[in-house]
């Protein structure tokens, strides 16, 4: 039964093609709760089988993620926090999740739009406090693209790895590989964040 569901999922991604990946990743990156683990690992699996191009799948995933983040950013800029506090639950934005995202953004500033893309729950909503804070669009796009690109690459690699080893694309395997990939990535994130903090602290006195 599970193998049939996996087969249906991979064939569905194949039929939808690259535009479908973009649309699904746009949905995943916006307010609607939709797991990217159901989109990019199957695309990576298909790439390993020669049925999709890995580069185009990455571009489609990254493009959809960025468009979804920009939608959230624009939504926050246009409607503001009072609206989200009052009506956010109708857009799958729970107050607790919004509070968590805002606190994360206040603590880490602009780089939170990069780091936040790699953290569950925060990933979908980090664009909202960035929009509420009127974060400049150019660094927002830069940091968001970097974080989303890393996440897309991880998920595609998981699918490609499973495909090349002829393993079934199972949810448990995807979670295990994604957790391991994040642990490998953590030292790199620490170096990037630490470097940014040092640069920011040195820049503030100079700006003052």
Jot down its keywords.
single chain; about 210 residues; mainly alpha
Characterization of this structure:
There is one protein chain. The protein has one domain (2-207). The protein contains nine helices and no strands. With 208 residues, it is mostly helical. The termini are far apart. The mean pLDDT is 77. It is 79% helix and 0% strand.
Produce the secondary structure layout.
Elements: H1 2-29, H2 40-48, H3 54-87, H4 95-108, H5 112-115, H6 122-125, H7 127-132, H8 137-164, H9 171-207
Please indicate the percent range of residues in DSSP E strands (runs of 2 or more). under 5%
- The domain tally reads 1
Using the alpha-carbon principal axes, give the shape: globular
Which series of helices and strands comes N to C?
HHHHHHHHH
Rounded to the nearest angstrom, the radius of gyration is 18 Å
Mean pLDDT: 77
Helix content: over 70%
Sheet with most strands: none
Q: What count of helical segments does DSSP give?
A: 9
> Could you give the distance between the termini?
64 Å
Structure class? mainly alpha
Task: List low-confidence stretches.
Answer: none
How many beta strands in the DSSP annotation? 0
